[in-house]
Specification:
295 residues; mainly beta; 19 strands
Length: 295
């Protein structure tokens, strides 16, 4: 399976990727990988075959890191892996995610979706659609206590089915430059389409460092739903998928944010207690591998 995925990644280019599993095939502690692009790699000459190969300086990667790398570059960015009854299962996603443009309006989105995006992981704009006539936009900042709400826009479906109007503004509304999907002069009574000025936003936008798109799959209990979460980042070209239980909070924005404490949103950063920390050692290795794959 790994070989098939890496062949898919490398395609039919002049310098394909060659993989070699070492030790126990079922559960090796490390996996050796040789990547063959042109730049920043040392050269090995094979005199007998009269060819020149370019091999990566990094020849050994911890298995969990490589598995994570493989998942990011599969068809959906990741294979949905989750635990149930102590066993790991792999399932295909139930909803095919948008690869680049995340839809924002109720008419184009799955029921009950939550969208979040950030320019730097310390600021988050959250958009969510409650199918019972409610749509909201919330702005959060990461603080020492977790997530602090700065302002909220609440839309209600009052007049006719499918027509949402801005019913309430909480906090001091300030639309920053990276929030380019919002109208800076939003007023109570405005239609949703007048405030959310784009049908979708691009995860390739230079203002977007990371984004996520949550789709409910099934209800587990009164307060918990199993969800598929598609995570986008500058580090990979297709969304990373995780399948996990999401606990619902009174504030919809927190529902969309609290799960990220348990998940690495980027290859090099992890939420530790009350803040993002850079994992420099993993960051260096991952950055090298990703740069090699991208080349």
């Amino acid at each position: 399976v790994l070989e098939k995925i890496f062949k898919t990644i490398s395609g039919d280019g002049e310098y394909p990727i060659v993989m070699e599993l070492v030790n126990d095939l079922e559960n090796p502690s490390k996996i050796s990988i040789n990547v063959l692009p042109k730049e920043y790699l040392k050269t090995h000459e094979n005199i007998h075959k009269n060819i020149v190969e370019y091999a990566c300086e990094i020849t050994s990667i911890l298995r969990p890191l490589l598995e994570d790398l493989v998942r990011r570059h599969s068809e959906y960015g990741v294979i949905a892996v989750f635990k149930r009854n102590g066993r790991r299962k792999v399932l295909p996603p139930t909803f095919k995610p948008p690869k680049h443009n995340i839809p924002l309006l109720p008419k184009t989105c799955p029921i009950g979706f939550i969208v979040g995006y950030s320019p730097n992981l310390s600021k988050w704009l959250i958009l969510y659609y409650d199918p019972i006539g409610y749509y909201g936009v919330e702005y959060y900042e990461v603080s020492k206590d977790g997530f602090k709400s700065l302002w909220k826009l609440k839309f209600m479906e009052k007049e006719e089915l499918g027509t949402f109007r801005l019913a309430k503004v909480e906090g001091n509304l300030q639309v920053e430059k990276w929030m380019n999907i919002l109208n800076v002069s939003a007023k109570v009574g405005s239609k949703l389409e007048e405030v959310i000025t784009k049908d979708s936003f691009s995860v390739e936008d230079p203002n977007v460092f990371s984004a996520f798109f949550i789709v409910p799959v099934r209800r587990v209990s009164e307060e918990v739903e199993e969800c598929e979460i598609y995570i986008y980042s500058r580090y990979w070209g297709s969304p990373k998928l995780i399948r996990t239980n999401v606990k619902y909070h009174k504030e919809h924005g927190l529902t969309g944010l609290m799960w990220i404490r348990e998940v690495n949103l980027t290859p090099s950063m992890k939420w530790l207690k009350t803040d993002w920390k850079v994992l420099s050692r993993i960051s260096l290795i991952t950055a090298c591998v990703l740069s090699v794959l991208k080349s």
